[in-house]
């Protein structure tokens, strides 16, 4: 933390990106043809820890937030945090060669930050500018970096090693990471996590009813979703 304190957000991005690329390349070379879930024992233990944290801490807070917050308030909060990420979404689209998608994200940022009052209202969608979901993990995949083994960490959740490296870069390029004072930054990030968890509450019942093995269900769902995102919903057919 003290090492990074003197760097700007983009300098930190470059440093972490270099470290992330080195890590995933080394891991990819070491694990090329091995089983995706080679750390299953560790992952299942961490999944159990996460289940306990969610049950006794995060889920009750998310349920309270969902109950007391009017729908317009929750929509505004979700829109605000979505708008905060538009610059990095657009940057990743550009890094992947998706120029039109990048333009749409940058337009969304401009419109929603001004007419949409700091992103509280999603005016850009009403004007036909589509919202995209891009991150540095997807960019690494487009650049040819292999998935690497699957990891599950408490609070962070599911990641492949490539996506974990991408997530580290996403964190350091997050505009909220430079918000001062620290109390405001922490409060904003806590609110974002609670808002995201509240949005997932309807999926809890589906997961409980559908999965005999919740860990395997979450792992497979994550891997399938990431594959779909990387190929923009049109993944190539895989051999059995």
Topology of helices and strands:
Layout: H1 9-31, H2 40-68, H3 71-84, H4 86-95, H5 99-114, H6 123-126, H7 136-142, E1 150-153, E2 157-160, H8 161-173, H9 182-199, H10 201-210, H11 214-230
Antiparallel strand pairs: 1-2
Helix pairs in contact: 1-8, 2-9, 4-5, 7-8
Question: What features would you describe in this structure?
Answer:
- The chain has 240 residues and is mostly helical.
- It has one domain (40-230).
- It has helices at 9-31, 40-68, 71-84, 86-95, 99-114, 123-126, 136-142, 161-173, 182-199, 201-210, 214-230, and strands at 150-153, 157-160.
- It has a two-stranded antiparallel ribbon with strand order 1-2.
- Strand 1 (150-153) and strand 2 form a beta hairpin.
- The longest helix has 29 residues, at 40-68.
- The protein is globular.
- The N and C termini lie far apart (45 Å).
- Residues 1-5 and 29-33 have low confidence and may be disordered.
List keywords for this structure.
2 strands, 240 residues, two-stranded antiparallel sheet, 11 helices, mainly alpha, disordered N terminus, single chain, globular, 67% helix
